[in-house]
From TrEMBL:
Its cofactor is Mg(2+). This is Phosphatase. It comes from the Bacteria. CDD domains: HAD_BPGM-like (cd07505). Pfam families: Hydrolase. Gene3D superfamilies: HAD superfamily/HAD-like, Putative phosphatase, domain 2. GO terms for molecular function: catalytic activity; metal ion binding. Belongs to the HAD-like hydrolase superfamily. CbbY/CbbZ/Gph/YieH family. Keywords: Magnesium, Metal-binding.
Length: 198
């Protein structure tokens, strides 16, 4: 979506520039775009929010095996979503993809003072789940999100093939289909290929 938005604002969507938008809040994205267009941040943010909401309503597809993975955890391990997105958009995405029933807690940009890369979203999610950050695992697809999870003292798995995210996260899986879960008592283990995280 960001590539099309940049083109609408007559900005060249170079891959490096597009990557700067991954995981940031719509306010931060609007500020970046406004710097290059002469439009106000509020005007750009409103347009971004409308476009993003419309795309979510038109249908989204979850990552491969996400539903199976969440089903394996559901009821045994508390699950949260911590997003820089607006609550209405996050809930719409989770509903559209059929994943909302697996989620115990949803934390969005409206719930915190600072979004990612600050740790606030993950800290609040852990607090609402009554889980210590060191006993949690965050699945994150952006460098900004990985940094926020690490700042919150959570364990992190980068859900991407991006080597930059892997270097920061320390663990990487290109998709949920590369993960296995084992639950024993009150502990759960996530296996990525040949590695096991506890």
């Amino acid at each position: 979506m960001i590539q099309e938005v940049l083109l609408q604002h007559h900005l060249e969507p170079h891959p490096e520039f597009v990557e700067e938008f991954r995981g940031i809040t719509s306010t931060k994205a609007a500020q970046k775009i406004a710097l290059h267009t002469g439009k106000s941040t509020d005007e750009v943010k409103d347009a971004l929010d409308v476009e993003y909401s419309a795309r979510l309503r038109s249908g989204s597809v979850p990552m491969a095996n996400a539903s199976t993975f969440l089903h394996a955890l559901h009821g045994a391990v508390p699950i949260a979503v911590a997003s820089n997105g607006r609550r209405e958009d996050v809930e719409a995405l989770l509903s559209t993809t059929g994943l909302i029933g697996f989620i115990d807690v949803i934390v969005t940009i409206e719930d915190v003072t600072q979004g990612k890369p600050a740790p606030d979203l993950f800290e609040l999610a852990c607090k609402r789940l009554a889980v210590q950050p060191a006993h949690s695992v965050v699945f994150e697809d952006s460098l900004i999100g990985v940094g926020a999870a690490k700042a919150a003292k959570c364990n992190v798995i980068g859900m991407t093939t991006d080597p930059v995210v892997e270097a920061e996260a320390g663990n990487i899986a290109p998709g949920f289909d590369c993960l296995d879960v084992k639950i024993t008592g009150q502990e759960f283990y996530v296996q990525i290929k040949d590695r096991i995280l506890k």
